[in-house]
Design brief:
Length: 426
């Protein structure tokens, strides 16, 4: 069975190219056209003989396709709003069916249409999909001097976007609401975030929002190294159980995160390291493991504060006890940071090393001499086995304070960082 994925564009009634029209014209009564009721209605100018079926939930669709193939369906047409491969169903189909079964027919996306209405070059716009995603996932994008194009749903309407801008300190940001694009009732209106946040204005449900953020200083960082006071901690003002800014920057460098990495942060505390890892690397997955109730509450608060709702998973429990309860998506990391171990460091090091694939990375810190000796014992084992490239450094930070009106530098405890990279063919 061949699957044709047809983009319908941004119109009340679709405009299709000749290739897509040809597919529809050749459908038989045994074939199927799959889409929402609105999408089916958009094909009014392109009649076809196939069965019209409403799109089921994606969790059911793969089984349905298999059943239809058994029943003798030769062609399945899947209708998609806009461009199927731009935040559309095309990506899901590509993950679940072999490429030789799929043919895509592109069309204009709503983001393209909105940019043309506003005279914006697509390469200068950052697209963020909030459709079916938590509103908080917008937060990592809210910095000064940015142009954001937002795909929205009922939970991310103009008022909600304005409230997020105000929360970020960007209350002078301009918000363009592009409603019912391609329809006779199309509207494009501009608002200021601080005025829009409490509005009773009613907007058409089908809308694209473009945000031009103001030059104001955002609450959300635009470069690595969150200031410590930004974090919710168990002792307030960034003084609780978090890895401090200077050490955190060194750890981020040693972890060397890339797209697709699965990272464990063991003994995550209030979430200093795991928050930055997930904030700067949205296409990687971070699993933060913590058991202390107060620190766990702070970790969850920081996840919410920085909008880390898609790629940061929090596991409440003590390592290594919780490892068996991790899901398939959370298991077998390729990079691990151990920030705390509650006396289980030796067994954690051995277990994590057994899991890491070739090329995997383990970073661990030590403040006490006892912890350092445990890591050095592990380093000696790795040297004997010849299965690791080791790198270590010791950092001491002296921070300025005022004493009787004069500047003095107070030394902090030295921290030793160890990095182990597993040898072998990746």
């Amino acid at each position: 069975m061949k699957i044709h994925v047809i983009g319908l564009g941004v119109h009340q009634f679709s405009h299709l190219d000749s290739a897509a029209q040809n597919v529809l014209s050749k459908l038989s009564q045994e074939d199927i056209v799959l889409g929402s009721p609105r999408q089916h209605d958009m094909l009014v100018n392109y009649p076809h003989a196939a069965k019209r079926i409403d799109l089921p939930k994606l969790s059911q669709l793969k089984n349905n396709v298999q059943d239809w193939q058994i029943d003798g369906v030769k062609s399945l047409v899947v209708l998609a709003s806009g461009d199927p491969l731009f935040y559309g169903i095309g990506a899901w189909l590509g993950r679940n069916f072999p490429p030789e079964k799929l043919t895509f027919y592109p069309n204009v996306s709503s983001i393209q249409m909105a940019c043309h209405r506003l005279g914006l070059s697509l390469q200068d716009v950052e697209t963020v999909s909030l459709h079916g995603r938590p509103l908080g996932s917008l937060r990592r994008h809210l910095q000064a001097h940015k142009t954001l194009a937002l795909l929205t749903d009922q939970y991310s309407q103009p008022k909600h976007i304005a409230q997020e801008c105000v929360l970020a300190g960007l209350d002078d940001s301009k918000i363009f609401v592009c409603e019912a694009l391609g329809y006779e009732t199309e509207k494009v209106r501009c608002f200021v975030a601080k005025d829009l946040q409490n509005t009773d204005e009613v907007f058409y449900p089908l809308n694209v929002i473009v945000v031009k953020t103001s030059p104001q200083k955002s609450f959300y960082p635009s470069s690595p190294g969150f200031p410590d006071p930004l974090f919710v901690t168990d002792k307030g003002e960034g003084k609780g159980m978090i890895t401090k800014r200077e050490m955190r920057l060194a750890i981020l460098s040693l972890m060397n995160i890339e797209n697709g990495d699965l990272i464990w942060d063991i003994g995550a505390g209030c979430g200093g390291v795991s928050s930055e890892l997930s904030y700067w690397h949205p296409k990687s997955q971070v699993v933060a493991i913590e058991h202390h109730p107060e620190r766990l509450a702070c970790l969850k608060a920081n996840q919410e504060r920085f909008g880390l709702v898609q790629n940061l998973s929090i596991i409440a429990g003590r390592a290594p006890d919780v490892f068996q309860s991790l899901s398939v998506e959370q298991s077998v990391p390729n990079k691990v940071f151990i920030g705390g171990s509650d006396g289980e460091l030796a067994s954690l090091l051995a277990y994590v090393w057994s899991l890491l694939p070739a090329g995997g990375c383990l970073v661990v810190n030590a403040v006490t001499e006892e912890t350092k000796y445990t890591i050095l014992d592990f380093a000696n084992l790795r040297e004997e086995a010849g299965d690791s490239d080791e790198y270590s450094l010791q950092l001491t930070v002296n921070k300025a304070e005022k004493l009787a009106g004069q500047r003095v530098y107070r030394p902090s405890l030295p921290v030793t960082l160890f990095q182990f990279r597993k040898k072998g063919t990746v």
